[in-house]
Every structure is written in structure tokens, then in C-alpha cells.
Amino acid sequence: MQVSNLELSIWRGDAFGGESVSYRVPVREGMVVLDAVLWVQANMASDLAVRWNCKAAKCGSCSAEIQGFPRLMCKTPITEYGSRLTVGPMKAFPIIKDLVTDVSWNYEVNKHIPPFTPSDKDLAASEPWRMQQKDVERVMEFRKCIECFLCQDVCHVLRAHDLKSAFYGPRSMVRIASLEMHPKDVLDRRSLLKGNAGIGYCNVTKCCTEVCPEHIHITDNAIIPLKERMDDAYFDPIRTIVRFFRGHAGKPPA
Amino acid sequence: MSGAAYETVDTDVLVLGAGGAGLRGAIAAAESGARVLIVCKSLLGKAHTVMAEGGVAAAMHNVAYQDSWEVHFADTMKGGKLINDWRMAEIHAKESPERVLELERWGAVFDRTWQGRIHQRPFGAHTYPRLAHIGDRTGLELIRTLQDRAVHTDGVEVHMEVTVFKLLKSEGRIAGAIAYRRSDGSVILYRCAALVLASGGAGKMYRVTSNSWESTGDGTALAYDAGAELRDMEMVQFHPTGMVWPAGVRGILVTEGVRGEGGVLRNKDGERFMERYDHERMELSSRDVVARAINSEVLAGRGTPHGGAFLDITHRKPDFIKSKLPSMYEQFLKLANVDITKQPMEVAPTIHYAMGGVRVDAETGETTVPGLYAAGEVASGLHGANRLGGNSLSDLLVFGKRAGEAAGAAVKAKPAAAKIDSADLTEAIAELMAPLEQPAGENPYQLQAEIQDVMSMHAPIVRDGPGLQTGLQKILELGARARTCGTGGSNTLLFNPGWHTAIDLRSMLVNAEALLRSAVERKESRGAHARSDYPETDDDLTSVNYVVEKSADGMKVRAQHRPAMPEYLAEAVHRSHARYTPEATE
Hints:
The complex is a heterodimer of chains A (254) and B (586). Chain A has two domains: 5-101, Beta-grasp domain (Ubiquitin-like (UB roll)); 104-246, Alpha-helical ferredoxin (Fumarate Reductase Iron-sulfur Protein, Chain B, domain 2). Chain A is an alpha+beta fold. Helix content of chain A is 36%, strand content 15%. Chain B is built from 16 helices and 22 strands. Chain B folds into three domains: 7-236 and 353-413, FAD/NAD(P)-binding domain, CATH 3.50.50.60; 243-351, Alpha-Beta Complex (Flavocytochrome C3, Chain A, domain 1), CATH 3.90.700.10; 422-550, Fumarate reductase/succinate dehydrogenase flavoprotein-like, C-terminal domain (Methane Monooxygenase Hydroxylase, Chain G, domain 1), CATH 1.20.58.100. In chain B, helix 3 (86-105) crosses helix 11 (391-413) and helix 14 runs antiparallel to helix 15 (497-521). The longest helix of chain B has 25 residues, at 497-521. Chain B starts with 6 loop residues before the first strand and ends in an 11-residue tail after the last helix. Classes of the chains: A alpha+beta (254), B alpha/beta (586). Chains A and B meet through helix 1, helix 2 and helix 4 of A and helix 3, helix 4, helix 10, helix 13 and helix 15 of B.
């Protein structure tokens, strides 16, 4: 459907409050939501705050809630919505201004995830590593993540319950999966998953998978296998019985 | 708000920019024991490096055993039409394999050969398959690996969404920088012993570009203002294949990987026209040649409905396309409603990269200002008159590391940050706040659009003297108007893009002027610099680079002669199998 004007409502405000303001935007062929927002910025509201960079769904900067649904503005053609459209900031993060939120928490969390750690032997090897395509394919899915944080935004543990102190969120689970399943990584992050990362808080509603613009199967391929790894170490009933009789032997990771 | 209220932050090495070069530089400087602070205009991990798709060029000879640093060196020199800094090209060709392998040891995951080695794909003007890659998102892999390495390296700190406005010197040496936080407009004075510019290019001065809002040429402008020399500023790369349709996505990059994986270019008559421009290398000719070929086809009336060429990869199997070019598949399906496994893409040249930039020392990346270093796109020399695809990511790694190490060493030699003149500081802050004092002055978005129009019209793919002169006059007039630039109406300090744009204009104007002045001086056609009034390459100018410098009465351009290559390098170029496409045959 081709419309000549778009009635675009953008949430305007800051940490102290705000409201939706309506703008009339002339429509161009192939226009995406970000184009419309930037048109408003250049022509009607010079101080409209919005983050964007690549405009090609590769950097994950222009995350917002379009008609209440977390999406990348650069990847959303306005034709999907007809002549009226509402855009607001991500709700799981503190507002800075308009469509810009404070996402620094995500970067803080990443500092607490132990980085890639190969074995001493691999590190000392003078020859380049050999790995088969099949070995690396599994982690490649996770490494597609563009850190748009839409999964963090939609996750009800973070969004509705604000449990950022207890759960690292789906993005971090994807990050941990990309390290844990890397063929050359030898570090065990299961105690982190059980403890500070709080993987137990995820109750597998798969909302994160639904909003991922990179189509990463966050729940099925990252979170569930990580949960299984963690469960194996801590909650396996047979191991618990063995542990009961044998004391320290077979102790789960600290 | 005109009061000079600011916060002071001290560090040893200040790094401007958090793309590949900035991150690699920061890691190197920190490893040498320095405290490092990275300042970037956007969020961490969003830098332009993520846009690099095709791969990183390194002569690891995993796919073609004949490859060697000599051939990579020769390809780079010939691609750059021999005006490259040959020492940079030598270092780059020799060190890039090591840098790629190092990245793998830091956790990067590359596509593999059947023998389990890093796979390498063919790319334009590289004699052998040479680009290590991960599908078509190599840049993302590179930046994520470096980002993770940097935040887990002791001594590295990051300030996100901070724009540096001016560099400060003391006793002729770099001593710090003035910046503002984009979120709340607060001013920060950074004091440092060494500063690494890694701020990328200036594509935003053109209308049709693959670059983001950030690429306003801040680094070149800051360095110029601090008295550093710029070089090869006339050399900007049009990437041959940007999206042309729909209008909203015009300019977005279509990776050279499409051609690397077998994609062919056709005009509206279905003719594979590259045959006429470079029958040896066809679609995998160097970027300057392919971009001009598409441009010529369109001008001759053989363009596609939306003014470009068809890029067709439908002869490859859908599964192959989806696995080798996943983000291209997604991009066209989503943004243009084109299924590239069934239909051809429509493409046209888009501004992509600045070969020119700050003049640096090949070994250390030091500029002509002591204590000021530059690496990556903001620096010049490696790519000469035309950059080969894949040579940018390797450039970032090789010279990012070298600049970081040199900056770290400089800190050890001269650790204490020098005193900064408070009058300089007050003046700079007043300048920074000026648009907020006159919000209703010239509209920054309007001025930006006018700069883009001027550059697109007067410094296009094929230029001419009178056009460049007219463009220069217009840019100088816009420069005068920019002095009374407002913010578009609002005087808030809180995340105010109107104000930010007004500040960025200053950088864009310096870059535009330097480009036009240098282009006027280079009276020949060479690489990315094609002139209809001087269509031939002038052999006498092969040893010349045009250098831009600030003088008491404005911007000056002078010709600078490069020393000749040593015998063994000249021999490598001479012996190479790579074809050198002379301009005359185009």
C-alpha cells in the first residue's frame, strides 16, 4: 500500500517524563522507520534524540519499540504499518532522551563474563590452529549478534521485574554460549551461569528469539544447552546420590 | 553556559575512535604498560568497522600456495597506482598474516578450508584468493573480538558517546583534547602524553555514501587544526556497488564478496560490460575501474531503471548464496524486496572510503605533530590512489598495533602531561558552545545537505578543473555561513543532535576543502582521481603526493616528492603477475 503522508508519533521526553508527539512525514518509496524519524529530525525537531549508525542492520544502534514491538528502525519498512505509526524508546532501560536510552548496563555485564580462554598448549602452539568448518559453525550463529539489546528489552525478567542485579539477560547468554561452545575455549563458566548470571531466571518464553533481528535461536540454541550444562553439574539426581556417599569426589564446580 | 565549566580526566594514551584501529591500538598501548582511554562518538562496537563485509587481506597462502607478501605488496602498490607509501605497503603485506592469526587466538572464528585452515576468498585486484572471512560479516567478528579483548585488558577504559572537539598542544607537543558528552553536553578536558587518532573517514560529506552520520572526518580536521600535514586528500573511493533502490536505502553497501563469489555485472541490455573495461580481471578489477565502468554505462544510457547496473549471482545455488552472503540475502529481501537467489541486484557507485588522511610515519604512525599518532582510515599512505578491498581491515590491525605501541613507548619517554594554556581552553569551549548561544542561526541540517550537494556535484567520480574550482568557492561560502551556525532551534545540552551536527560541520568543511584543493592540484587521472580535462596518467606525478597544511593565510597545498622504492621492492612490483590496468584502456 502506498500512502503519501505518514502520521508518525514519536515519544519525546527525558528522565523526568514525556509524551508522544505527532509528526506528518512525506513518504518516499522504500522508506524505513529510521528514514521517517531522521526526516523529522532534519525538518521539524532538530533536537530529536535518536541513535543510528550503519542504516543497514549491521550495527544494532537504532533499536526502538515500533507499535510497541522491539525492532530495528533501519530494517522496518513503514509500509508494514500503513499510514499511522508509533515509535518509542526501549522500555527496559533508563531514558536519556526521546528514543535514546542508557544501555551501559549491558556493557558492564559483559565485563563480568570471563573472556575467551584457550588451553596453554594451544596458546603456545607455533603452528596456526586447525579447525573444521563443522566445528566452528555452531558458535557462528551466536557471533552474528549485533548487540542491539532488543532481546534484553523484551525479556520480562529485565523489563517487567527489573531483575538486572540477578540475571544477565539473553544477550549475555548468547555471549556465554559463543565462548562455552568455541572449540578452543577451555574455561568452565557453569558456576557463573548458576550464580551471578542467573540463568535459572529464564523460564524459556522465547520472546528474545522472536525479536532477534539476526534470527539467532537464542532460547533453543544458546540458553537451553547452557541450562543443561549447568544442570548436569549441579542438579543431576544420580550425581547427587553419588556425591552423598562419596563426599567430595564428583563435587560440582565451585 | 558560556562559563568554562569542565571536568578533567587524565590518562597516558588517549585513543580517538573505537573501530578496529582504535581498539587494536588501545590493546597495544595498554600491553606496553600505559593507561589508555578510548573515546568514541557512538556506543562501543558500533564503529564503521562493522560495515566491512568481505574479509581481511593477508597473504597466508591457505588457498593459493603461490601467494606471498611480495605479491600482496605488488597488488597493493598497483591498486594504489604506485603513489602509496611503499614502506607502509611493505610492512602491511608482511605483518597482516600474523595479525589475523593473532585475532584467531583472541577468539575470532573464521570460515575454514577443508584442511581446517582459515579460508580465503578471491577479491578485486588481489592476484590470489587472500581474504580471510566469516561469511559476509568479517568486520563484526573483528570488532567484537577486539572489543572483548580491550575491555578485558587491564588499563583500558572507554568513554562512549563523547565527541572530541579540539586537540590541545603544549610546547609543540600534544597535551590533550577537549570533548563533550553527547548525552548531556558536559565538557571534558582530557590530558594525555600521547594521542592516537583512529576516527575513520569523511564519507558523510557526500550525499550517496555507505558511511554513517559519524564519518565526518573529525580526525583529519582535528589533526589539520593542530598543525599536522594531510596527504592524498583528493583520493576518495567510490565503492562500485552500493544499493540504488529504493530511494531510502541508496548508498548502502553491497559487498565486493558478491563478485568474489562469482557475481557478474550486466547493463540493461544484458551485456557483461566489464569485458570492455578490463577483460582480464572483469568484475574483480580494482574498485576505481569498476566504479567508473558502471558510471560510464549509466551515462551512455545503458543503465538500469534506477540508474545503475545489474549485479547477478543467481547462477550460484541458493544454499551457497545464503551461506556465503547471508547478510546480503537478508538486506535485499528486507529492504528492497529482492530475492538475490532468484533476481539480480541493482547497484551503483557509493562513497565508501578515504585513502587520503593524516600523513604518518610508516613505522610508528606518528604524524608531523609530536605525540600525535594516526592509524586506519584517518591515516594516509598505505592505499595510495585506490584501496583494494580487504586491505582496510588488515590496515587497522597492522597499523593500529604499531601506533598503539609507539604511543605507549612515547609515554614512557615523556610521561607527565604538559601544562595546558587556560586561554586556549576557554576559547575552545566558547567556540563549542557558540551554536547553543544562537540556536536560530543557520540550520545545521540545511548546511550539511548543501555541503553534500556541492561535493556530489563538483567532486564526483569524474572531475574537471572548473567544476572543482566552483565547488571550492561554494565550500568556502558555506564555511563562512557555518560560522553563524545554530542548532536548528533548540538550546538544550541534553542529547541535542542539532548541536552535534553543527559541530561536525566544521570537520566536514575542512575535509571538503582539502579534497577540492588537492584535486585541483593533481592535474592527471590516477586511481580514484579521474579528471575529464586531464584523462591521462602523468608518469612524472607517480612520485608526487599532494600535502595539505594549515598556514597563516589559510589552507595550503604543496607537491611532495617521495623517495624511490629500494631495489627489492621495485623488483617485487615488476615481477608480479598482477595486471596493472592503465587508465588509457578504460
